Amino acid sequence: MKQGYRNLSQVSDSDEETVLELQSSDAESSSDDESVSSENYIATESAASLPEGTSSTWKATMNLINFIEGVGLLALPYSIKKGGITAVISLFLLPIITWYAGKVLAESLYDGDEKKGKIRARSTWKEIGDAIYPKYAGKIVAWNQDIGFVFIAVSYLILCGSLTSHALPTVPLSQTSWTCFAALLILPTMFLKSYSQIAWLSTISIVAIGLTTALTVWYGLENIGNWDPSTLLFWDFEGVFISLGIALSSYGVAKIIPSVEKSMKNKSDFGKALASAFAVSVVIKVIIAVFGFLTFGSKTDEAIVNNFPVGPLNITASISLVISSLLSIILCLRPVCESLDESTFFSEITSDISNTICNIIIRVSLVVITLAIAIFLPHFALIAALMGSFQTVFFGFCIPLLVHLKVKYHELSRLQICADVILLVLSSAFSVLGNYFSIKALVQAKLNRF
Length: 450
Prior knowledge:
The protein is an all-alpha fold. About 70% of the residues lie in helices and about 0% in strands. The chain contains 16 helices and 2 strands. Strands 1-2 form a two-stranded antiparallel ribbon. It starts with 12 loop residues before the first helix and ends with a helix.
């Protein structure tokens, strides 16, 4: 057993009372199928009976990379088109800030320290919210979490429809039809039971992203004679906020940090897993963004693969990314399923129905809702920008920094407190402006469609 952690068998009577006082979960809290290991921390009463985490460090890293390399990846060249050099710089700075926020979020899941022993006091976003402001904040955070996950899944479906319709123009199916077909394909993955199983899908997804990255580099090098680096050096005030929103969306990982960290066998390795995931992510994103924009310039599409000429290259890259998107949607909708499974309101409605039928209803309904939104708002990059400006800032910065200040304040140095406060103020200000310009662009795109 690692120093600084204690298991349940070593807890004294007074410690047991402390554990009970530290509980912030209630009947609505999610009970993930892969709980934290009792060898590494003292579990709260609601988690004590759950099985130990089963995911290895590499599996956790795969799930983190798969989630990071998600919705915003193909829109990154478009983000440079909108934001210029600011977008390029953000690809290097944002992962550092996001890693810090993710690290303090993971720390805030526990009470205590290395000397006295760490106690896992929070496992769900509702419990994290309750730590900031009991009852009300937890519910607000939980609702926003589920809405954000659904919209990320929406972006994946839009991407599937857009890529397939561009890659196979001779097939008499519209983008909407391809989007519906993609929704049917993801239904089987909705019934996977553990993050360990999902990790294998994540591995396939990452390989598919790697293939697309290689094809983008190859095509870019084939057309390097057309590159003009000076096209990166411009500034557009509104465009900067849209581009930063897309970049933030592409680095958003906070939502699955509690679940992935909980699922790990060796939770002390989570920081390494998160750092490794960001390191891989930066390389992929910079290559896709810079090569894509320099190759196509002002003609850069919302999804860069759509710029490839019709033929084997376009088909290979598009199908690879469609596979990656299909295998990634489960990471978005699974936490929503868990929330609904544990919801008291939903349980009362379905009290006369068997658990199996309830599970089917929840999962099929989520896919249908996701599909309906994707058909109504088929604007991949703009939705990614909106999610980055609101959801990623809210969950990736505001909530982690607030809960860190609340539960760890007396353990923090003045420098740490100042860093948290400054990042909190700056991220909040950006969120307001980013939301305004993203919604404005989305409304204009919707009006232009009619």
